Amino acid sequence: MTTQPLEALVVANRVRSEHARVLGELRGADPAEARQRISELLLSSPAEVRTMRVERLIVSTPYVGKVKAAQVLRRAGVLSTRPVGQLTVRQRMALAEEVGS
């Protein structure tokens, strides 16, 4: 048996753990801090959030549900299923501005 599937599982688990850590930090922060942090994450796009869907990142903000997240994404012109790493610079800027306000 090759080690490739095991290595893929290790990578997938590491990515899931990083996503959970980031989302936990956002959920534990007050709403203003969480919005600021999301704006920073969108603009810098660190490795731990590149594969995360944009909607999941925004919904992790306290007091923001799927409806508010959909409104923010619509105003910014971004699809909810889009991973953070696939956003264009213009989309990142628009979304960071929408989230930060």
**Overall residue-averaged pLDDT value:** 91
Order of helices and strands: HHHHH
Oligomer: single chain
CATH C-level category: Mainly Alpha
The dominant shape is globular
Going by helix content, strand content and strand pairing, the class is: mainly alpha
CATH architecture: Orthogonal Bundle
Query: What is the fold named in CATH at topology level?
Result: Helicase, Ruva Protein, domain 3
| Number of separate helices | 5
Indicate the low-confidence ranges by residue numbers: none
Which bin fits the share of residues in helices? 55-70%
Instruction: Count every beta strand, where a strand is a DSSP E run of 2 or more residues.
Output: 0
Note down, in words, how this protein is organized.
It is a single chain. The protein has helices spanning 4-28, 31-44, 54-59, 66-76, 89-100. By secondary structure, it is mainly alpha-helical. It is globular, with a radius of gyration of 14 Å. The mean pLDDT is 91.
Brief descriptors of the model:
67% helix; globular
Summarize this entry quickly.
By secondary structure, the protein is mainly alpha-helical. It has helices at residues 4-28, 31-44, 54-59, 66-76, 89-100. It has a single domain (4-100), classed as Helicase, Ruva Protein, domain 3 (Orthogonal Bundle).
